Amino acid sequence: MNLRSLVLVACLAGGLLPAGISAARSLEQIRASGELRICVAGSSAPFYQRNAEAFARHLGVAPKVRGLPAWDDQFRAADGTVERDASYAPALLAVGACDLYPNDLHIVPWRESKMDLVPLYRARKVVVANRALQSAIVSPADLAGRRAAVQKGTAYDSWIAQQNATALARNPVAVTHVPTAEAFVRVAQGQADFTVVGSESAFRWVRGDLDKLAILFAVDEPVRVGWAVPTGEEALKQAVADYFTASRRVGSELDESWHAYYAVSLMEYQLFESSLQADKGGIPLRTLLTWLLPVATGLLGALLAVAIWNRRLRGEVALRRESEDALRESEERLELAMRGATLGLWEWRRETGDLFTNDTWASLLGFEAAELKARYASGTACWRDLVNPDDLPRLQEHFSRFLEERAAEFRAEYRLRNKAGRWIWVRDVGYQAAHDAEGKPTRAIGVTEDITEQKLVESEILEAKRVAETATQAKSAFLASMSHEIRTPMNAILGFAHLLGRSKLTGEQRERLDKIGMAGEHLLQVINDILDISKIEGGKLVLEHVDFSLPEVLDEVRALVGEKADIKGLAVRIECDGAPAWLRGDPTRIRQALINLAGNAVKFTESGSVVVRCRADRFEGERLLLRFEVTDTGPGIPADRLPGLFRDFQQADETMTRRFGGTGLGLAITKRLAALMGGVAGVESVEGAGSTFWFTAWLERGWPVDIVRAEVPAGGAAELRRLCAGACILLAEDDETNQEVALALLEGTGIRVVVANDGREAIEKLSEDIDLILMDVNMPVMDGLAATRAIRALPGREAVPILAMTANAFEEDRRRCAEAGMDDFLAKPVEPPELYAMLLKWLAKEPGARSAPAPRR
User: Fold this and answer.
1) Cα separations (Å) of 33 from 26, 59, 229, 230, 796?
2) Span 76-87, mean pLDDT?
3) Could you give the maximum distance between any two Cα atoms of the chain, in Å?
4) Residue 598: which residues within 8 A CB-CB, separation 6 or more?
5) 426, 448 in Cβ contact below 8 A?
6) Cross-strand pairs, 346
7) How many CB atoms lie within 10 A of CB 241?
8) What mean pLDDT is predicted for residues 770-795?
9) Is the pLDDT of residue 659 over 70?
10) When you count CB atoms within 10 A of the terminal residue's CB, does the N or C end of the chain come out lower?
């Protein structure tokens, strides 16, 4: 019976193999199945998974990843113990549930007895200490009585425990168990003297803080590290080995994965590992001194000492030569790595004040290094000549600051002229590599990267953004223009409809007139919705921040939708739970969002009720998150239509538009308003069982305020005639139809109206008995804003009320009118009750007090 059969029998006997599971799979079977079964474990599982997925792509199959519990669980025997010396395969490898363990495993005999391991790189335990202790700790014996920070349960923790039990038993190390990252922080801050880690982690962390951390020495010989495959699957083992060989280059997937995880590439680490090996050739000064004892004997002793010295020296020379060869090889490999990554290397030295660059730096600009050396007397002169003159002063100032601050980083983007005479963009990143006794940098090193393509992409993005902003501005200008052009005739349509409504009409005529009015109001709602969307998208919608009464807002919503609900026999209820009565925020936008939801609920519900709810979801000090809901007993919405409900111009059913009307913008506006208030919007619905639309908003606790409402007498035109008869109004309006509408609406009020066709004519017709001015904004010759500013400059006209009556309905239009000196604002199309109320507000006086104009607010 072969080894695999023995393993499977042992696993089955131990209860590790489920019935019917086959043995480990061969490379041929893996490729035939189209998937590689990958098993990973431990805190670094995502790193191992990424590497194995790259290997799966190398094989041309799909990765299937399985996360495992603690690593030792894979090697437990039937009784639960980890028998390292017994020969049995890990259960999941044996049955084919795992084809590959990509964990970085130290290749040691007990693991090799259970699976085949393919070596990838070498690692060892190293001691890392605070740089201030570099001369005080030169061997393990110097660790006695020191403070260590190390991760519990690791091989490094075990090594310190072993030293404490043996060589350091008289003066053991004081150990603090913390995660590896925190261990390095403690060593850097002097809270611990040293830590012990793997050379991979040491390279990563020490390189990140060279000023405070130093790698002192290795405490063991290098151990091979690799991936595991089932025992006996030679083809799979060879495929992994071939993949490792192909990955030993800068920019490979494995190399890049290392860089993402360790902050150093696999190639850089291998150079570092080689340098640890090369360091063994350094001169052991302490051993050497033990041979230089005081000469106590004569010539024989001296000759003996010289002989020993010479013999030792020859050995040291040979070792040093080997070290220099290894170092040269490391430097060559590092240069190849830098060249492969297209990174130029530079070095600044204070003693000469010069700048040195490598061959790759010259090649970035299209030069050979020899060309630059022949053309320029120094590296600094070369750099200054090639830098764009517009960038040079900034760079010199930046580099000077970099040299003044200890441990500073130099990072700059600028332009260099290449051999072809074109400017290319580069990025420099540099660090201070050495300092003198006063802490001033004596050497700085860094890399230069060509980022021209990145800058081109950024430029294209900025241009695209500019084009988009221009398009948005054009869109806003277009909408504002269209709004004005539509509102102007709408004012005439609705105005004449109102005037016709005063006449004696037949039933059929009145029905048709009502339909005209309804169609006009619908068109006006469409315009308002589109303008709201445009303002929100353009970032021009500014929220108010005022105290308001929540119950009053909810009552207003019920009143506004109540009339249509009453016609359909629907009950409208308000429920408020746990929310303060007084809040601070934007009541107008909350009211608008609720009206959108409640109006839709009434529109689509034929019988039953509509409930408007409000509750406090969360409190954070003075802030609270309110949830508003509108629930109806309507037909409900199919589940497949719910995701698109809050999109622009979208309704649950396209037939809804034809049946009920609407733009499909109400929900989109509500969602955007909720977002502006820090909340979200959504819907819950079951077809045939009604719907609940909701939104949330962050508000603040408010304070009760006295709401001062203008006491405007009721009665419209009749009340205006009673209180304001004899007043004189100047109407500045260039559209003849709208002039006719305004005159007809004011007919019978006892108010005299003087008409001006533009702003200049309004100034010319301004007389002493003018009590109020109705001012259009867009007019020929002189617009309403210029006319208002001119009127305010006239002596005695600072207080005459000027009311904007315009089709420009944006918030910025209101603001411009106020800034020009206007007192109030009426948006066209003007509702007659609003016009009468506005005139009463500014003209109403005690009877007989008609002699002076109304005071300006």
Assistant:
1) 11, 12, 17, 17, 95
2) 65
3) 145
4) 557, 558, 560, 561, 572, 610, 612, 630
5) yes
6) 357, 446
7) 15
8) 92
9) no
10) N
Between strands 125-130 and 194-198, the pairing is antiparallel
Using CA atoms, how far apart are residues 558 and 570, in angstroms rounded to an integer? 12
Rounded distance between C-alpha atoms, residue 359 and residue 567, angstroms: 86
658 φ/ψ angles, rounded to the nearest 5 degrees: -70, -35
Cα 496 to its chain centre, rounded Å, is 54
Average pLDDT of the residues in 55-59 = 93
- Residue 496 to residues 443, 502, 517, 743, 832: CA-CA distances in angstroms? 86, 10, 10, 11, 11
300-322 burial, b if ≥16 CB within 10 A, otherwise e? eeeeeeeeeeeeeeeebeebeee
Query: Distances from the Cα of 838 to the Cαs of 60, 521, 645, 708, 717, in angstroms?
Result: 78, 21, 39, 16, 12
Put simply, whether the predicted model's pTM sits higher than 0.70 gets the answer no
Residue environment code for 205-235, b if the CB has 16+ CB neighbours within 10 A, otherwise e? bbbeeeebbbbbbbbeeebebbbbbbbbbee
645: DSSP letter: T
Mean predicted confidence (pLDDT) in 213-234: 87
Please report the pLDDT score of residue 2 as a whole number: 42
Please enumerate in sequence order all residues whose Cβ is within 8 A of that of 750, keeping only pairs 6 or more positions apart, or say none: 720, 721, 724, 725, 726, 727
Residue with tokens 């529109």: 603
**DSSP letter (8 states) at residue 151:** -
Strand ranges in 418-485 using DSSP code E only, listed in sequence order: 423-435, 441-450
Is residue 52 pLDDT above 50, yes or no? Answer: yes
Report residue 694 as tokens: 């909701």
How long, in residues, is the chain? 857
Question: What is the C-alpha separation between 410 and 348, in angstroms, rounded?
Answer: 12
Partners of residue 434 on adjacent β-strands:
443
Provide the residue type at 338 as one letter: M
Half-sphere exposure of 262 (CA within 13 A, CB side): 23
For residue 589, CA distances in Å to 186, 526, 619 come to: 53, 17, 21
CA distance linking residue 185 with residue 197, whole number of Å: 14
Whether pLDDT at 144 is above 80:
yes
Nearest Cα neighbor of 768 from 750, 804, 794 is 794
Residue 330 has pLDDT above 70, yes or no: no
Q: What pLDDT was estimated at residue 458?
A: 85
The long-range contacts involving 110-115, CB below 8 angstroms and separated by at least 24 positions, are: 110/84, 110/85, 111/228, 113/85, 113/86, 113/87, 114/75, 114/87, 114/88, 114/89, 114/90, 114/231, 115/89, 115/90, 115/228, 115/229, 115/230, 115/231
**Lookup result for tokens 């990765």:** 63
- What is the number of alpha carbons within 13 Å of residue 526 lying toward its C-beta? 15
Residue pLDDT, tens place only, 716-748: 788 888 888 889 999 999 988 888 888 888 888
pLDDT given at position 6:
40
Query: What mean pLDDT is predicted for residues 689-707?
Result: 87
Using DSSP bridges, classify how beta strands 691-701 and 213-218 pair: parallel, antiparallel or unpaired. Answer: unpaired
Q: Which amino acid is at 662?
A: G
Question: Which residues partner with 347 through β-bridges?
Answer: 356, 445
Nearest C-alpha neighbor of 598 from the set 619, 627, 629, 555: 629
Q: Count CB neighbours of 478 within 10 A.
A: 11
pLDDT higher than threshold 80 for residue 20: no
Where is 400: in which H helix or E strand?
helix 392-404
**Interval 167-176 mean pLDDT:** 93
Query: Residue 354 is which amino acid?
Result: D
Segment 197-205 mean pLDDT: 81
